[in-house]
């Protein structure tokens, strides 16, 4: 079993949180033919807009840095409101993907939600097949398709098909 920690993000983590955000857009933006400086400036603007949107739309958002062996490897953004939680973002840096961190993190989140009696909703890009597969594997159901995003939901009565291995 991998051991990692979730630490509450602080202003000191903003550079890392930007790096995680940028990692999700780099491939897309590289195809535009922009200079590195143009890409960086654009990503900074987009990141700032995303942060403001989350702050405005999700007043109870909890920002976490995912840490493995004292190395930050990803971010988790979750808005907990009573019996409905919104998983706004769960991103592991590309170099750490495929090692089970996402599955373990999601499993722990589902266990916490189950104990709290909360359902979890999220939106994922229709093109992000890897994430959609991960969420389905853990019991999320697709409930709506709105063009570029799929809305998914996990209900406390469901159990993840992935169980912790002792």
From TrEMBL:
Entry superkingdom: Bacteria
InterPro entries reported for this sequence: Acyl_CoA_acyltransferase, GNAT_dom, Trichothecene_AcTrans
PROSITE patterns: GNAT (PS51186)
One family name in Pfam for this protein: Acetyltransf_1
One Gene Ontology MF term: acyltransferase activity, transferring groups other than amino-acyl groups
Domain (N-acetyltransferase): residue spans on this chain: 22-157
PANTHER family xrefs: GNAT FAMILY ACETYLTRANSFERASE (PTHR42791), N-ACETYLTRANSFERASE DOMAIN-CONTAINING PROTEIN (PTHR42791:SF1)
Name of the featured protein: N-acetyltransferase domain-containing protein
